[in-house]
Design a protein that fits this description.
Helix content: 40-55%
Number of domains: 2
Strand content: 5-15%
CATH class of the largest domain: Alpha Beta
Radius of gyration: 20 Å
Number of strands: 8
Distance between the termini: 39 Å
Structural class: alpha/beta
Largest sheet: 8 strands, mixed
Length: 345
């Protein structure tokens, strides 16, 4: 079939490569004519993926109309701050029976909406129940060289998730399905916040004990807000939850971890972001997470202290002291607050 991938960043290009490996005709949209020429002529996307060779079945284009023409599947890998604009450009060229999946991990800062809701706003011809989200532990740098990767596609209409599963699954890219769109999107978004905190902790030299605690308590924060928003608590024990959280908090490929590490080493946030040269979703998501916690009266102490470091001038060490000095509590009581069951792990 014809598949369109919108935005030729690292993740969009890697996913285009998966689809092309599966025999689909793939159109990869980019705003940059030079990038399109390089992908078509050299079968490389050097800015984002270095010298990794791309499947020659991928055809890059700067035309939204050309990318979407005759596409049965559209996979959108735009940054969250560009999702609404990209979807608006797609609207006139998208047929109502097109399968739409997004692979962004973040919340719209102004509205606090997840990307499936942003797409539903901008693409009224598409059934909202069929808009899917691709999430899970999956660095583009590894997917493009065909390292074994396992992810999940969530959609309220399970037939849509299964159709995307069929299109993407192969010998190195295993796809599960899940009907819990809320859980997948909240987990995928907020894990970037915890990854920033984990990187910051390592930058301070606090060691593995501290990072393990941040990952574990961070998962509890994510599950608490997820429960309030209607997620299935078991989703947070799966690929889009703990799986993605662990890889983003520990991998050298993680932009969020690397940005946090740079801040922990004493760099300003602005300098750390300039060093990345690519979008670090966790920064804006930290603002959104704090707003979300205040709106729903949910305790998210790691996100709140990270916000103070990034945007209020608090020193990282003082933030850690605040976290460590919180009133002691019972761990099982904390877990019980995240789930109607007695356990979530």
């Amino acid at each position: 079939m014809k598949a369109a991938v919108m935005v030729a960043g690292s993740w969009g290009t890697a996913l285009a490569n998966v689809l092309a490996d599966n025999g689909h005709r793939v159109s990869l949209w980019t705003r940059n004519p030079d990038q399109a020429e390089e992908i078509n002529r050299e079968h490389r996307n050097t800015r984002y993926l270095g010298d990794a060779p791309l499947n020659p079945r991928i055809a890059a284009t700067v035309s939204v109309e050309e990318a979407l023409e005759d596409a049965s599947l559209v996979l959108i890998a735009a940054p969250t701050n560009a999702m609404r604009e990209v979807a608006g450009r797609m609207r006139p060229h998208l047929k109502e029976n097109t399968l739409v999946i997004h692979a962004a991990k973040g919340l719209e800062e102004q509205t606090l909406k997840p990307m499936s809701e942003v797409l539903a706003d901008e693409l009224p011809q598409i059934d909202p129940g069929g808009i899917g989200v691709l999430s899970g532990p999956s660095h583009a740098e590894e997917v493009v060289i065909r390292c074994p990767t396992t992810i999940v596609i969530a959609a309220r209409r399970i037939a849509a998730a299964e159709a995307a599963q069929d299109a993407l699954s192969n010998g190195y890219f295993r796809v599960y399905t899940n009907p819990d769109v809320v859980g997948a999107e909240i987990a995928g978004s907020l894990k970037n916040v915890i990854a920033l905190a984990a990187g910051l902790s390592d930058g301070l030299g606090f060691g593995d004990n501290a990072k393990a605690a941040l990952i574990t308590r961070g998962l509890a924060e994510i599950a608490r807000i997820g429960k309030v928003l209607g997620a299935n608590p078991l989703t947070f024990a799966g690929l889009s939850g703990v799986g993605d959280l662990v890889v983003t908090c520990t991998s050298r490929h993680s932009r969020n971890y690397r940005a946090g590490y740079a801040v922990g080493q004493g760099k300003t946030l602005e300098a750390a972001l300039a060093e990345m040269g690519m979008v670090v979703e966790g920064v804006k998501t930290t603002r959104a997470a704090v707003k979300l916690s205040e709106r729903h009266n949910v305790d998210m102490p790691i996100a709140r202290q990270l916000y103070s470091v990034l945007f209020e001038g608090k020193s990282p060490r003082a933030a850690v002291e605040t976290l460590m000095g919180r009133v002691p509590t019972h761990e099982l009581e904390e877990i019980a607050r995240t789930s109607s069951e007695k356990w979530i792990y």
